[in-house]
């Protein structure tokens, strides 16, 4: 006998476009949901803005304004607002992050690490060419498609603290934007955002790919022996004027002979099936109610303090 068919219950649809299904992650500015885009009928990732101040709201608005189109860059494909709830829609990436992969496998084969570094440098080259500095390049922001034991496919995501070079800075005062351990030396001296800082962070990521060890702030990075060492060392040059650009580093990388070694790790599909409709309808309703209350409170505070 076949199992009984599940009854779908009314779902939450934001601005008539994004039908929220289930929460799949939490970011610095809110929660990430699996959703259906009513315009395309396809599944997407929907980032729902959580409690925020004016700076967080501005970052959210700037992120939705980014329209950098490249296979290895993950930026919003659309946005919607409805009853004080704001959401960004973007591709649903199902293979987890490079951080998760490293936690499971430890050091990656140099040939596999070289492919990931190639794709990261491709992404940074196009981002920098668009006049944007990412400012938070790290394994947790590098998403992976589920490619099994084949070649990896990386997407640079989370542009929440990215800044256009021609625009006003989002951070004022002495705060340093980024993640400790991936910050270039000049960032600790409160230097203005510059693409060379993303290049340095890519060098830190490359070291982590090869060693399996995350950076430890205050301790020197040890680049292992091998064909990638000279390039990674150049990315990590303490003098930002001596670091190659992302595009130049990509050209150098492609001239390096890195023979295939292995075995390569497996990147699985990490997203579980969507929950039964009766379960996710209640979850979505609670999540949206909390987000709406937080947004209203923040808006009231901004009015009173403005």
Automatic annotation (TrEMBL):
Record CDD domains: STKc_PknB_like
InterPro entries, per the entry: Kinase-like_dom_sf (IPR011009), Prot_kinase_dom (IPR000719), Protein_kinase_ATP_BS (IPR017441), Ser/Thr_kinase_AS (IPR008271)
Domain of life assignment: Bacteria
Domain Protein kinase: 18-306
Residues that coordinate or bind ATP: 47
Keywords per UniProt: ATP-binding, Kinase, Membrane, Nucleotide-binding, Serine/threonine-protein kinase, Transferase, Transmembrane, Transmembrane helix
Entry-linked Pfam families: Pkinase (PF00069)
EC number(s) reported in the record: 2.7.11.1
MF-aspect GO terms: ATP binding; protein serine/threonine kinase activity
TM regions (residue ranges): 280-305
Keyword Transmembrane helix: yes
This protein's record includes keyword Nucleotide-binding: yes
PANTHER family, per the entry: MITOGEN-ACTIVATED PROTEIN KINASE KINASE KINASE 20-RELATED (PTHR43289), SERINE_THREONINE-PROTEIN KINASE NEKL-3 (PTHR43289:SF6)
Designated name of the protein: non-specific serine/threonine protein kinase
């Amino acid at each position: 006998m076949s199992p009984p068919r599940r009854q779908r219950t009314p779902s939450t649809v934001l601005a008539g476009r994004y039908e929220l299904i289930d929460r799949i992650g939490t970011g610095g500015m809110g929660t990430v949901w699996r959703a259906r885009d009513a315009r395309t009928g396809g599944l997407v990732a929907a980032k729902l803005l959580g409690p925020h101040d004016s700076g967080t709201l501005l970052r959210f608005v700037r992120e939705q304004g980014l329209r950098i189109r490249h296979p290895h860059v993950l930026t919003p494909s659309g946005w919607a607002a409805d009853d004080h709830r704001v959401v960004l829609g973007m591709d649903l990436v199902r293979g987890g992050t490079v951080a998760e992969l490293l936690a499971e496998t430890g050091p990656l084969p140099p040939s596999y690490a070289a492919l990931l570094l190639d794709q990261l440098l491709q992404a940074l080259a196009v981002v920098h060419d668009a006049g944007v500095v990412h400012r938070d390049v790290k394994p947790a922001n590098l998403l992976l498609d589920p490619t099994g034991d084949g070649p990896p496919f990386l997407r640079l995501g989370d542009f929440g603290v990215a800044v256009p070079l021609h625009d006003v800075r989002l951070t004022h005062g002495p705060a340093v934007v980024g993640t400790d351990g991936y910050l270039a030396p000049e960032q600790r001296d409160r230097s203005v955002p510059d693409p060379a800082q993303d290049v340095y962070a890519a060098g830190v990521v490359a070291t982590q790919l090869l060693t399996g060890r995350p950076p430890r702030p205050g301790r020197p990075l040890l680049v292992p022996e091998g064909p990638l060492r000279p390039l990674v060392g150049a990315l990590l040059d303490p003098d930002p004027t001596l670091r190659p650009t992302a595009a130049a580093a990509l050209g150098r990388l492609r001239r390096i002979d890195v023979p295939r070694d292995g075995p390569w790790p497996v990147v699985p599909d990490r997203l579980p099936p969507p929950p039964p409709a009766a379960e996710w309808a209640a979850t979505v309703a609670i999540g949206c109610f909390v987000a709406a209350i937080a947004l209203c409170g923040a808006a009231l505070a901004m009015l009173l303090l403005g």
